[in-house]
Design brief:
This protein has 145 residues and is of the alpha+beta class. It contains 3 helices and 7 strands.
Length: 145
């Protein structure tokens, strides 16, 4: 199992930040792992919302079916899912008030028989780099809104 986590302090309003994260129509503008939706995502999400998307990891597109397992605006969004390759995942977005803005933590867990050794380390490095870039893009997007 791989666990990744990226935290960043952002000078943006926590409610606006969370609203952007919880709006799948914005993901193409900031979420670097997101490639595209296979099925049109719902306009609003809630617990048990299902989304099918392609994520891009190590330059390859992977279809992932996600279900929202926790939705607590404006603090937390958790999604769990699996891919056709047998990899399961869980993504957590957590937003906290912080002096001057927000503290955003994105964490994820990945498990699967294919994820071992050097491949796991390569996935970890790629995902962390994309998440760090995502948080920077997200801050710019929320500030511009």
């Amino acid at each position: 199992m791989a666990h990744i986590e990226v935290t960043k302090l952002l000078t943006v309003n926590p409610a606006r930040l969370y609203a952007t994260i919880a709006d799948p129509s914005t993901w193409g503008n900031w979420f670097a792992l997101h490639d595209n939706f296979v099925e049109e995502p719902p306009k609003q999400i809630s617990v048990n919302t299902r989304m099918v998307q392609n994520v891009r990891i190590l330059g390859m597109s992977h279809r992932v079916e996600l279900t929202v397992t926790s939705f607590r605006p404006p603090m937390q969004l958790v999604m769990s899912g699996s891919s056709a390759a047998g990899v399961t995942c869980e993504f957590h977005f957590s937003v906290e008030r912080h002096s001057g803005g927000s503290k955003l933590t994105f964490s994820g867990d990945f498990t699967g028989a294919a994820l071992t050794g050097q491949l796991m380390r390569a996935v970890d490095t790629d995902v962390v780099a994309k998440l760090e870039a995502s948080l920077d893009k997200l801050a710019i997007l929320v500030e511009a809104a």
